[in-house]
Design a protein that fits this description.
Pfam families: ADH_N (PF08240), ADH_zinc_N (PF00107). The protein is 26% helix and 23% strand. The protein has 369 residues and is α/β, with parallel strands linked by helices. The longest helix is centred in the middle third of the chain and has 13 residues. It binds nicotinamide-adenine-dinucleotide, ligand AHE and zinc ion (ZN).
């Protein structure tokens, strides 16, 4: 079949809207009509050529929602008409990682996913006979996409696609970092670095679990109002701090935070987040994805004296099990999504979403097909 898609033909170039050829689902695969997709900073990072796994030409996008159109042989868990969210972190429930109960990082198809291919080692997308790579196992910047059955979460059919798509990455990542990875307890003092599409979801997760101080740190002064809107209690703009930012934050939180979160992807900020933790027990959670080649550093003494450095992918959520629950939280009013979606556009204007993000003018842009 044909599908309209925004293709990343080359790094650092705008996406091009073209009609691609899309092969139907093979065994264990499903064809999904994507109804809406968010644009996450990770898409921009790959498009900018900063992802060590980045492949071109490819169909980016990993924050979508849509409807199952057709299933391949052997598919039993979803059927045509089901509403689903594509999962860049699948859940096979059979691999060593899934069975360990210690991680959400299913390893069943990670190797082929990282090479832009379906689990059988081939792509379903092509353009004028040339292979186009999949991205993060999702490729939601295409109106239709093929996904492994283990990489779709069935969600309730009354959730609007235009907001539910954000659960496919940003919402689950931010809220999940709080409830799954850090397991923040009520009253805990927390600092969130970076108040964008992910960091604001960390903030609303912290509010949901009853955190004490919720300090937001961002270079963009407009983000103060956004943070307060979702539960931030204190705002710090590093540009206006006299002297050392870490010392300022340690003093503000009476000796350091119980939990800190990096949602910037900047390795200098990651170090500040670790060092702003309380001596003896503070935990710092890395969410941000850093550019290829970047490394983190700190004095080992920071860890010797009890600070803990952790990371989280997709907020530690088990895709097929947890994503439908996050949609329920949204539909039941436990968390908000609508106000964070600052811009909606047709696929033809998807490049505007990247410009808005780079200028710091959007929280989340959503393409509605
Ligand atoms: P975004 O562009 O919407 O937000 C980033 C925010 O960080 C902005 O408000 C920006 O002003 C702020 N910022 C940038 N540099 C800063 C600095 N030095 N100090 C303080 N604030 C600074 O991006 P997003 O979509 O929220 O994504 C944030 C990061 O999370 C990205 O690196 C993205 O790739 C990553 N991410 C990771 C996961 C995961 O599963 N681990 C999932 C989604 C996104
Ligand atoms: N490909 C990059 C790493 C990118 C990365 O860390 N991705 C996150 C999700 S970001 C969503 O917006 C993730 O889930 N990582 C776990 C995984 O298995 O990819 C690189 O550095 O090579
Ligand atoms: Zn993302």
């Amino acid at each position: 079949m044909k599908t309209r898609a925004a293709v990343a033909f080359e790094a650092k170039k705008p996406l091009e809207i073209v009609e691609l050829d899309l092969e139907g689902p093979r065994a264990g695969e499903v064809l999904v009509e994507i109804k809406a997709t968010g644009i996450c900073h990770t898409d921009a990072y790959t498009l900018d050529g900063l992802d060590s796994e980045g492949l071109f030409p490819s169909v980016l996008g990993h924050e979508g929602a849509g409807v199952v159109v057709e299933v391949g042989p052997g598919v039993t868990s979803v059927k045509p008409g089901d509403h689903v969210i594509p999962l860049y972190t699948p859940e096979c429930r059979q691999c060593k990682s899934c069975l360990s109960r210690k991680t959400n990082l299913c390893t069943a198809i990670r190797a082929t996913q990282g090479r832009g291919l379906m689990p059988d080692g081939t792509s379903r997308f092509s353009y004028k006979g040339q292979t186009i790579f999949h991205y993060m196992g999702c490729s939601t910047f295409s109106n239709f996409t093929v996904l492994p059955e283990i990489a779709v979460a069935k969600i309730r059919s009354d959730a609007p696609f235009e907001t539910a798509c954000y659960v496919g990455c940003g919402v689950t990542t931010g809220v999940g970092a709080v409830v799954n990875t850090a397991q923040v307890e009520p009253g805990a003092n927390c600092i969130v670095f970076g108040l964008g599409g992910i960091g604001l979801n960390v903030i609303q997760g912290l509010k949901m679990v009853g955190a004490g101080m919720i300090v937001g740190v961002d270079l963009n002064p407009d983000r103060e109002e956004w943070g307060r809107r979702f539960g931030m209690t204190h705002f710090v703009n590093p540009k206006t701090v006299d002297g050392d930012l870490v010392a300022h934050l340690v003093q503000l939180t009476d000796g350091g935070a119980d939990y800190t979160f990096d949602a910037t992807g900047n390795t200098t900020v990651m170090r500040q987040a670790l060092e702003a933790c309380h001596r003896g027990w503070g935990e710092s959670i890395i969410i941000g994805v850093a550019e290829a080649g970047k490394e983190i550093a700190t004095r080992p003494f920071q860890l010797v004296t009890g600070r803990v450095w952790k990371g989280t992918a997709f907020g530690g959520a088990r895709g097929r099990t947890d994503t439908p629950k996050v949609v329920d939280w949204y539909m039941d009013g436990k968390i908000e999504i609508d106000p964070m979606i600052t811009h909606k556009m047709p696929l033809e204007r998807i490049n505007d979403a990247f410009d808005l993000m780079h200028r710091g003018e959007s929280i989340r842009s959503v393409v509605v097909y």
